[in-house]
Amino acid sequence: MSCSDLPNIEETLFHVPTAEAVFRRPFSSHRPRILLLYGSVRQRSFSRLLTQEAARLLEAMGAETRIFNPSGLPLPDDTGADHLKVAELRELVSWSEGMVWSSPERHGAMTGIMKAQIDWIPLSIGSVRPTQGKTLAVMQVSGGSQSFNAVNQMRVLGRWMRMLTIPNQSSVAKAWREFDDNDRMKPSSYYDRVVDVMEELVRFTYLVRDRSDYLVDRYSERKETAAELHARLASD
Q1: Host H or E run for residue 93
Q2: Which of 9, 169, 180, 207 has the most CB atoms in a 10 Å sphere around its CB?
């Protein structure tokens, strides 16, 4: 393709997206790896119960899951990245191909516990961007009427972390009514929505995981890399 009508474009760095390029890589055969985070350390945490329900569904759909327990995670920047809980969280993020974030809504927002976990995940570790191109599903629980403040906030954070947040989401109102004495979620339209969300997450993870590097490849970053290379060669 000629870039004659695009004088601001560096033609050698301008890549035309094609279906062939998107699906060139073979599909992985291992189970999708999903990390689940929840935003409360209460003894009976409904965001944790919702997370556990989601993990059961994901396992039934063929995924491999890990749930991170935020208890003991220090405040962001209150210690170094070598702290055991911080290191555990970052290792799980690197392991994962997709994530589920589930938070209570507190004061019209996600909890500080949820935000602290996200804040401990850096945009880059050396040359690796641990969240870029991975899939994300967001869910919330509310003590009162249904709200979407927490899921909307987490969507913004997912975008900032360069994740591919799936379209569907779950918001469970009056969560204290939705779980039985065995801490299992009762049959309801809320439960059905959780099934929908996990089903969609697995599908998107299959679609994205083997080609995330291509999907997030950017002209501006190729251009910056080329400029840095030219500068280094000029200084040799």
Answers
A1: helix 84-95
A2: 169
Place of tokens 């004088």: 7
CA atoms of 123 and 162, how far apart (whole Å): 8
Taking the C-alpha atoms of residue 107 and residue 150, their distance in angstroms, rounded to an integer, is 10
Report, as ranges of residue numbers, the positions in the chain whose pLDDT lies below 50: none
Residue 38 has φ and ψ, to the nearest 5°, of -130, 160
The residues, any chain, with a CB within 8 Å of residue 135's CB and separated by 6 or more, are 97, 98, 99, 163, 164, 165, 166, 201, 204, 205, 208, 209
| Tally of CB atoms within 10 A around 61 | 16
Q: What is the 3-state secondary structure (H, E, C) of 29-62?
A: CCCCEEEEEECCCCCCCHHHHHHHHHHHHHHHCC
Which residues are CB-neighbours of 106 under 8 A, at least 6 positions away? none
213: Cβ contacts below 8 Å, ≥ 6 apart: 133
| pLDDT tens digits, one per residue of 177-208 | 999 999 999 999 999 999 999 999 999 999 99
Cα distance from N-terminal residue to C-terminal residue, the chain = 34
Q: What is the pLDDT of residue 228?
A: 74
